[in-house]
Amino acid sequence: MSVAASSAPIECEVVIVGAGPCGLFQVFELGLLGISAHVVDSLAHPGGQCTELYPDKPIYDIPALPVCGAQELVDRLLQQIKPFNATFHLGQEVTEVRRETDKRFWVRTAADTTFHARTLVIAGGVGSFQPRRLGLEGAEGFEGQQIHYRIKSAAAFHGKDLVIFGGGDSALDWTLDLCGKARSLTLVHRRAEFRAAPASVAKMQQLVAAGRMRYIEGLAEQLLVRDGTLAGVIITGKDGARHELNAEQLLAFYGLHPKLGPIAEWGLELDKRAIRVDTEKFQTSVPGIFAVGDINFYPGKKKLILSGFHEAALAAFGIQHHLYPEKKQFLQYTTTSPIMQKRLGVTGN
Ligand SMILES: Cc1cc2nc3c(=O)[nH]c(=O)nc-3n(C[C@H](O)[C@H](O)[C@H](O)COP(=O)(O)OP(=O)(O)OC[C@H]3O[C@@H](n4cnc5c(N)ncnc54)[C@H](O)[C@@H]3O)c2cc1C
After folding, report:
1. Distance from the CA of 123 to the center of ligand 1, in angstroms?
2. Considering the entire predicted model, what is its pTM?
3. Which tens digits make up the pLDDT trace of 106-123?
């Protein structure tokens, strides 16, 4: 797997929007047919819902795997698609898709990576995961500078006065990581119960008891701004007490929520929050744009990983026909096809 940074327009056969299990398997099915793909995901890592929402949970309905952890499934898919060398563009949402006059698609991401793609597969699942934001007046203006929803470099917070919001694993993990490295640290969570691992919560409580950090059960009410700079935040405690916290940096880990987002604006026929496709090729209402996995809709649709895998297999044939209509299509088995085995890098085994 190669990971690309933003660059000049990339000419390619296929762009896959979404690196969830179905987007990853799409790479495989295209690879078997000799078609290479670029994969874009707004998350910083592949895996979609499996990695983001339930990495440690066991899945029992993947054919031939009686039980498989969700992250394990993603790892296995990544291993399976390795021979096809897809290029991944992670941490960037696809924001614009436009049909060009020559029937190619102009695709652009939030990080300004652009593609001239001959076909597009939307494997966007339940949409682009977005961080739940603080929701305080003026917070948007400080985003990325003094208010953060993900951490790119922990070192940037060393020696700073920090307030961390949230009660899940991310909030607790970063609290434990940054306690002792930040100048001061306060964790704020709205209720007594935590979603984080009990061991992390216990560790945090020990640090509070040892006077190494503060914990407040309460809600953020208002930002403190002095001379245009964020200076802290006002918290209303569960007991009604008002806390004025000085802070240079606020980190909020309220989790992620899926949003159909820009996909809704690409001129595709939708059915509620899903993209209508045919069941022969899984093509959308726009020829050359296909959709697989949770994002699509057709009569009888079931949002299951194995359904998405089937859709990816048929979409690959549809894409091949769209790209090379003159090419005769025939079914080959990986067991016996020398060309497929060559593509898989297993020739001679
Ligand atoms: C708790 C839980 C348990 C589950 N258990 C099972 C199970 O046991 N068996 C089963 O079959 N299914 C299960 N599912 C459902 C399964 O996870 C989904 O069917 C599967 O993840 C769908 O895969 P996907 O690739 O279509 O989409 P997703 O996994 O949702 O991935 C879509 C990806 O697209 C990205 N994306 C979306 N829009 C954009 C954009 N504009 N630009 C860039 N990236 C974008 C998203 O960031 C995301 O990473 C479960 C789901 C949950 C929540």
Report:
1. 9
2. 0.77
3. 999 999 999 999 999 999
